[in-house]
């Protein structure tokens, strides 16, 4: 996969500390290299919007046509401008709002591409976080899957359904490399064939139909990918390949988050650099509210598979980043940094957004580069993970409400959004791409078209098998305590249960917290009982230090498990 990044001079500290912002920070002195553009693929079919061949909602009148109420922004000016007629208002709007990008769109025609959502590879999980001793329950749109490692350590993926009585296999366990359904004990081998039924008579054969629907799964660059089609053979050439991650010396910090809104809204958010200075002000060393400004965008590629192009700040024309979106759900932002010695370093922000059902998505975030600042090395990995959780929590209220409005209004985004040329170009491009391929998805919200979900949303009050080991050792399904409640607005459930590093960190801090509490109590009790002044002082100091340690452990646990709340929202 071609990166086509820009090349510039910047501080490596700034680049590394911008982790988990969708867009890396800018620097003042930049020198960009020309991109390596892809050849755009031909569009498959040109149709008139007046007679769509697919069961899509037809185009409806524009917002201006639907409404006779005129409104305008109020500016703080001393001399009011003369009123404009309707034609002049439209001309002024066209200067700032994203308009049609092709002659076909201007004529009211729609380009439709040949697309089937199942004939794609979807990112399931970071391979480093897949448990060795338990099955993992995951979804792609409304398809429920179970992922696990067999006895030889190979990844296997099946439909998450036992053929006996439809129990979830992700609620089961692994026995000698075989997947066992914990409802009645049926066991399945690596090929999905049933090899044991405890209730079957000794002289009876296992029915041939007692087998599982299998899905092809591959490990590529540290991510497990699944091919969703049951009709078309897997196409290995469609597995995304990220060039920078294969470069010598490239190191990344990767994390997984489950989020309570649609994957298309998540992708919109991640390709929106304009919101970063406002929503994430001072979250790290790169986002500052006073840096909010008009942005420059240049679309260099459009195809049935996605789009790509440059973007940057108007205040620094030499600073440019290269963004690429590729079907079905991969987004990357690349840069090449040239240091003071003339050495080139590569940096990438990669976002893999898996649709997990209506109003739900799972995101794999991967930030890395061929050079890392010494200062960034001083921070533990879990610190960057919790900071990523903070970033997503800052946007969560906005995006959840956006999801709700789209479902209620049931109209294309062009009737609801005011996309500015200076901030929302990528968002408009993405929704127009949805217009081309949405007919091949279970549902979609395009710029000019919409198809609503045909299947009702499934709400699980006891989510199955996220990490069976954690589910067994902690009340991860809401049995005790709010930290472990099955709620996607809860950071523990959204991230920690998916991350080996953060689970182990939380467990370690909890163990230290208990031990230090015991030491503090014992020291305080002994200080009361002893009569020597030196011993009493020593025990009191020990109790004080232990109490401080208890507080530090409690703060670290809260940092990993407690949601961010904006100051003005705190009660």
TrEMBL record:
Top-level taxon of origin: Eukaryota
UniProt key word Transit peptide: yes
Keyword annotations of the record: 2Fe-2S, Chloroplast, Iron, Iron-sulfur, Membrane, Metal-binding, Plastid, Transit peptide, Transmembrane, Transmembrane helix
GO cellular component: chloroplast
Entry annotated with the keyword Chloroplast: yes
Region (Disordered): 80-103
One Gene Ontology MF term: 2 iron, 2 sulfur cluster binding
TM region positions: 511-530, 537-559
GO biological process: protein targeting to chloroplast
Name of the protein: Protein TIC 55, chloroplastic-like
Record gene name: LOC110762564
